[in-house]
């Protein structure tokens, strides 16, 4: 009986194996693109939906901390989704910084950016569909960027009314400096790196901390891939070109400031820690015993 059952399943198993082989992607760049897209999608759906629930729920279904937790959890889960394939950059500024520092070949840059932007755009579209009825009820069908029923901030960041453009730029710059510094601290094998398996969680906690301490001024975009694709989506979905005009044409700041902040954070860590912290060396002492030496300043 078991033999007949096995023989009956065998053709199906072979068919499934053939389908799997046909669907398997050989190109490492395409696999990395898809991984970044999925990781970014998970991050954005969890993050943006937390914003939507707070805004559209009028404070009855969460507060500002809910948004911080949503993005922190989104980052953690996004890293788990993509980390083993692409390293889970999930941030165009970080990807560009890795290319400049020689940690990632420049030829891979387009695939990473395209994956991140695709995942972010689809994440915004998903949250829009998920909360479409609530959006229509909250705004009476009139999607506006600012004002009492402004809802564009659910999807992209905008500066607080009291913020100057220079102050907003500095906020995003410093927040991203802390982001990339923290990431380097967590992953530096030559220093006090995090325990294996905890990196994703700690990175999520890092983002949570940045949101809790630096989110009031600008909404802590700290990521061009998090901000631009949803902004483009909202321009298409009914908010119009005002998403690019609002905040004194704020839209370019979440692209430039995080990029410069990531580069500055990487440079600071390299100058203060990395170049002085050489790998541990082994050598024999005068008695023929092995001793451990580490480099000193």
TrEMBL record:
Top-level taxon of origin: Eukaryota
The answer to whether UniProt assigns keyword Acyltransferase to this entry is no
Q: Which GO terms describe its cellular component?
A: basolateral plasma membrane; lipid droplet
Q: Please tell me whether the keyword Magnesium is annotated for this protein.
A: no
Q: How does it sit in the membrane?
A: Multi-pass membrane protein
Among PANTHER family, the record links this protein to: AQUAPORIN OR AQUAGLYCEROPORIN RELATED (PTHR43829), AQUAPORIN-7 (PTHR43829:SF15)
Name-wise, this protein is: Aquaporin 7
What is the protein's species of origin?
Answer: Meleagris gallopavo (Wild turkey)
Corresponding gene? LOC100547762
């Amino acid at each position: 009986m078991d033999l007949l059952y096995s023989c009956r399943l065998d053709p199906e198993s072979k068919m499934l194996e053939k389908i799997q082989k046909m669907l398997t992607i050989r190109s490492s760049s395409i696999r990395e693109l898809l991984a970044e897209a999925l990781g970014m999608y998970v991050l954005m759906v969890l993050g943006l939906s937390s914003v939507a629930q707070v805004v559209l729920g009028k404070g009855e279904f969460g507060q500002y901390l809910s948004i911080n937790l949503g993005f922190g959890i989104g980052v953690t889960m996004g890293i788990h989704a993509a980390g083993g394939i692409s390293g889970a950059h999930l941030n165009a500024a970080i990807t560009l910084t890795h290319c400049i520092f020689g940690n990632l070949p420049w030829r891979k840059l387009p695939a990473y950016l395209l994956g991140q932007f695709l995942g972010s755009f689809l994440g915004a579209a998903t949250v829009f569909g998920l909360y479409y009825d609530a959006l229509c009820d909250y705004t009476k069908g009139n999607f506006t960027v600012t004002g009492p029923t402004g809802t564009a901030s659910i999807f992209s960041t905008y500066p607080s009314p009291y913020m100057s453009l220079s102050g907003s730029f500095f906020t995003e710059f410093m927040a991203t400096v802390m982001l990339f510094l923290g990431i380097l601290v967590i992953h530096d094998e030559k220093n006090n790196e995090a325990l294996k398996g905890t990196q994703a969680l700690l990175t999520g906690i890092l983002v949570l901390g940045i949101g809790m301490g630096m989110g009031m001024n600008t909404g802590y975009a700290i990521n061009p891939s998090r901000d631009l694709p949803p902004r483009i989506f909202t321009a298409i979905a009914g908010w119009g070109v005002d998403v690019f005009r609002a905040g004194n044409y704020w839209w370019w700041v979440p692209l430039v400031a995080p990029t410069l902040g990531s580069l500055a954070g990487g440079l600071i860590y390299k100058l203060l820690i990395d170049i002085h912290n050489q790998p541990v060396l082994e050598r024999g002492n005068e008695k023929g015993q092995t001793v451990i030496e580490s480099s000193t300043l």
